[in-house]
Each structure stands twice: as structure tokens, then as C-alpha cells.
């Protein structure tokens, strides 16, 4: 569900050059905008995903650990379909057990006894097909999050313009209406 906000990468670069504290504040505000997705995804995690699945170990499933693993990330990287390095803003599941719960069974038709993991996938399918938490939460909250991100982007542009005026440089770098999503 990729969305591009025209001017966001440029605004973040301007903030990086002006004031690191303003950049941190802007990133913190952007991360707050996806809280509806994060909270909804956390609510979709079951207490016990599959009977017999250990709560310990690297790939053990614990609702608390899986819940803490869902978080927002902001980074600069290459994105397929966009030229150059782009500011990426995404919600990810960093906990291995939570990632297995969310995505197990998404790559094919798991049937016993020919494929390993068929039993786990059939146990997890009681909670729904693959993409059990993050994707449904993102689809459900997409509109509200897009509005919040757009507003946060406008607020960031206003902050940059105010800082430029205070520094005596004058002019507006990014008029309020020029940031838009496509």
C-alpha cells in the first residue's frame, strides 16, 4: 500500500540541515499518525496463536512480544517504482514470532504431508488466512492515517517556513498546498 507524499523527502532534508531537534520532532509526529494502524493490529493478535507453539525462543509466539514488535519506521531507501532514494515510512512487525503468525501460509497451498509447516498453517488459519493482523489493520485505517500524514506534512512545511523567516532568509520554501499524496 505505497503512497508517495510529494515534497516530504525534501522537507525532511531541509529539517536535517536546519535543526536536528526539529527533525526528531517531525519524525516523532509522523510516527504518531500511524497509531490507529498499530493499535488495531495489536488488538488482532490472539493470546495463543496455536496450541503447542512455545512462548520462548527466537521464534516463539508471545502476544506481548508480538505486540511490542509492531512499530513505525522512517528511513531513506530505494523504493521500487520511485527514482533515487526516497523517504520510506512504514509499519512493520519486528518480532519473528509475530511475523510468522501474521504471514504463515501466504506463499502457497500448504497441504499435509507434502509440505513442512502445513500443521502450523492450518492451526493459524483458524484466526484467518495469511496477512492476519497488519494488512487488515492498514486497510481499515487507511483513510484516517492518510489525512493525519498529510496534516503532519503541512505542519512540517509550516515549521520550516517559520524557521526560515526567523533566520532572516525570507520566502517560502514549500507553500502549504504543494505537499500532496499520489
Order of helices and strands: EHHHHEEHHHE
Number of strands: 4
Percent helix: 40-55%
Give the total of domains.
1
How many angstroms separate the termini? 12 Å
Outline the structure in words.
The strands form two sheets. Strands 1-4 form a two-stranded antiparallel ribbon. Strands 2-3 form a two-stranded antiparallel ribbon. It is α+β, with helices and mostly antiparallel strands and 182 residues long. The protein has helices at residues 8-18, 20-33, 35-43, 63-69, 96-103, 118-124, 134-166, and strands at residues 5-6, 70-78, 85-93, 180-181. 49% of the residues lie in helices and 12% in strands. Residues 174-182 have low confidence and may be disordered. α1 crosses α7, α2 runs antiparallel to α7 (134-166) and α4 packs across α5 (96-103). It has one domain.
Describe this protein with a few key phrases.
182 residues, alpha+beta, two-stranded antiparallel ribbon, elongated, disordered C terminus
Layout of helices and strands:
Layout: E1 5-6, H1 8-18, H2 20-33, H3 35-43, H4 63-69, E2 70-78, E3 85-93, H5 96-103, H6 118-124, H7 134-166, E4 180-181
Antiparallel strand pairs: 1-4, 2-3
Q: Quick gist of this model?
A:
49% of the residues lie in helices and 12% in strands. It has helices spanning 8-18, 20-33, 35-43, 63-69, 96-103, 118-124, 134-166; strands at residues 5-6, 70-78, 85-93, 180-181. The model is unreliable at 174-182 (pLDDT under 50).
